[in-house]
Specification:
By secondary structure, this protein is mainly α. The chain has one domain. It is about 80% helix and about 0% strand. The chain is built from seven helices and no strands. The two termini are about 25 Å apart.
Length: about 190
Amino acid sequence: MNWFQLTWEWLLPATDDLLVRGQAGLVIATCLGLIVTLFALVLTWRISGDLQTGTVIFHTILALFLVSISLLAHAGSVSLAAWLLVLLLLLSVTSVVFPYGVASASATGYLIPIALAASSLGLWSGFGIAGFSSVVIWLLAWGERAGWYKPKLPPHSFHLTFNAPTLTTIFLLMALITGFWTHFLGQTLP
């Protein structure tokens, strides 16, 4: 085995259940990817001169939280780790989508917690997260149309008639595809 494979095997929980190991691997890989992204953002802001001390402190705390979630998955508490990560991702995506509205490309960020929930927690959890994400999108689109919500990006009527239904369809399909595949694997793996 090479160094990477040995390290990866060490990160996974010590169980013979391949599905649990795979689900833990998804949680750990997502956490590691997010940690790398956090440090890349800090480096980018440092180079551009936009870095602030508060940002560094926040990103460090967030990275430590992600390490803690990874350790939970490594210890075999995969469902708890997955739920914590999914909720953190939902909070993060919603905090970015809310100021900019349905027109923001960041609304597609909901696909990440949907896919993670469906693949690590199951089909119905994926549908639940897709439903939550859709409700947020519909509420923002409705709020734009009703005039009680003013996003930074200009509101348009097609956010309610096109963006919200399209994103809902994409979210539900993501949950269905990922959740069904995980269910299938769970039935076929020894």
